[in-house]
Design brief:
This protein folds into three domains: 44 residues, 434 Repressor (Amino-terminal Domain), CATH 1.10.260; 132 residues, Rossmann fold; 147 residues, Rossmann fold (3-Layer(aba) Sandwich), CATH 3.40.50. It is 45% helix and 15% strand. The strands form three sheets. It has a six-stranded parallel sheet, with helices on both faces. The protein has a four-stranded parallel sheet with strand order 7-6-8-9, with helices on both faces. It is elongated and about 75 Å long.
């Protein structure tokens, strides 16, 4: 039985082969009625695109890459869902890479994506060195930054204002007023605040710390009084370990965590030690993952539009891939939203 070709589909649908190609590769450019007629012909004839052949002709595949720094964090899982949904709608597949915050691993992952001739790459970079991304662009691979601002006009980026988020989180904690610092005795008076964070080499962690310090200044307090517990990872276990350190030095009045996983670990350690949250220590997370509202004491958090980050970044990437001459680079910055729950009320 002869293999069905694009010309066969075009004849059945009453369109040109070029229109069939557009339905397969750039469906958004085809009128709905025409696209549906072509898709019906594809189904009726059982046409299957020869993926490897089209890749060789075009010099790339119908795939994009997504590189994140911690796939174990529900934040990135939700971002990935937004990416995959848009990619699927437009006929693309997604190859996922997890750098685990390692520039070396990220470099290797990007090399694999380039070898696969992906159309473009969405990336939350593990560092600030632009050389790895420049090498992708030199190979004709479009790049969009996700959860990271752009520092140059010739690339797209979708991010959240982490300085504003850190500032709002600590301002919320300070607005609760003095509670005496807990049963172990406060450290630094009625407005003692601790910041539990992952490595400060991670941009998000550093910027949330900066926002926290700005909130202290706005309240007339010394930004140097912010107690910083820097963990090696942004996990619940790391949060438990950080909480143990805080309790050993004397509990602060409030704890702000760089993400919800750290906050959930801190919460677990505090409750195990008999510390009342929020009566003895108020606790604030960041990201507003699903587990935040479902924890033993529902967690206050800074909500980020995670799914929307993934969707919009993918739309920008594929627009750049498909319309390079008309594409306008955009730098989109969302504002986080404070969600107050039991842990600070």
């Amino acid at each position: 039985m002869a293999m069905v070709s694009i010309k066969d589909v075009a004849a059945r649908a009453g369109v040109s082969p070029g229109t069939v190609s557009n339905v397969l590769n750039k469906p958004a450019k085809v009128a709905t009625a025409t696209r549906e007629r072509v898709e019906a012909a594809i189904r009726e004839l059982g046409f299957v695109r020869h993926g490897s052949a089209s890749t060789l002709r075009a010099g790339h595949s119908r795939t994009i890459g997504l590189s994140v720094i911690d796939i174990g964090n529900p934040f990135f899982t939700e971002v990935a869902a937004g990416v995959e949904d848009v990619a699927s709608e437009l006929g693309y597949a997604v190859i996922l890479g997890n750098s685990a915050g390692s520039p070396g691993k990220e470099e290797r992952n990007l090399g694999v994506l380039a070898e696969q001739r992906v159309r473009g790459v969405l990336i939350t970079p593990s560092g600030e060195d632009p050389a790895r991304l420049d090498r992708l662009r030199e190979r004709g691979i479009s790049v969009v930054l996700v959860d990271h601002p752009a520092h140059r006009p010739d690339q797209c980026a979708v991010a959240v204002d982490d300085v504003a988020g850190g500032r709002a989180a600590v301002a919320h904690l300070l607005a609760r007023g003095g509670h005496g610092g807990g049963p172990s005795g406060g450290h630094g008076g009625g407005h003692s605040v601790a910041y539990v964070t992952g490595p400060l080499t991670i941009r998000q962690c550093a910027e949330r710390r900066r926002g926290a310090a700005e909130a202290l200044v706005a309240a007339g307090l010394d930004p140097g009084s912010l107690r910083v517990a820097e963990a090696a990872a942004m996990t619940a276990r790391a949060g438990e370990q950080a909480a143990a350190e805080l309790m050993a030095d004397g509990l602060p009045e409030a704890v702000f965590c760089a993400n919800d996983l750290l906050a959930l670990g801190v919460l677990r350690a505090l409750l195990r030690a008999g510390v009342r949250v929020p009566d003895d220590v108020a606790l604030m997370g960041y990201d507003d993952i699903d587990f935040a509202a479902a924890s033993a004491v529902s967690l206050s958090s800074m909500r980020q539009p995670t799914y929307q980050l993934g969707r919009i970044a993918t739309e920008l990437l594929l627009d750049e891939c498909d319309n390079p001459d008309e594409h306008a680079h955009q730098h989109i910055m969302f504002q986080p939203e404070l969600v107050a729950r039991e842990s600070t009320q």
